[in-house]
Amino acid sequence: MKTLPMILALALSGGALAAGGGALPGLLAGYQAAGATAFDADRGAALWVAAQPSPDGGPARSCSSCHPADQRQAGRHARTGEPIEALSPAVVATRLSDPVEVEKWLGRNCKWTFGRECTPQEKGDLLSFINR
Known about the structure:
Layout: H1 3-12, H2 15-18, H3 24-33, H4 41-49, E1 75-76, E2 83-84, H5 99-114, H6 120-130
């Protein structure tokens, strides 16, 4: 499992967190250490709206099934209808601030949307898009 070593590396590189820069710099560094190349917000945006066959045979899914393309806007869970706060750290200051939370939600949402875990490259591209 690559996630645990990455989280440990991020915890040890807490300088970005202590400096008030949020978890994003450490997360991206961890993904690059796991083999990702330069991150691209446009690639993240394309992944965000790409329709994926539902693993359970339901309607196709994408990140935009629950979250709008404008990360400053609130979303709504496609299945439950529950409101979801905006993902942009510019709107919700705590977004992308805790690497464990970011990894938890990327893990859940990648599995729900894509039927698998996202690669470090995909995670970095998606986070670059969210933080744009």
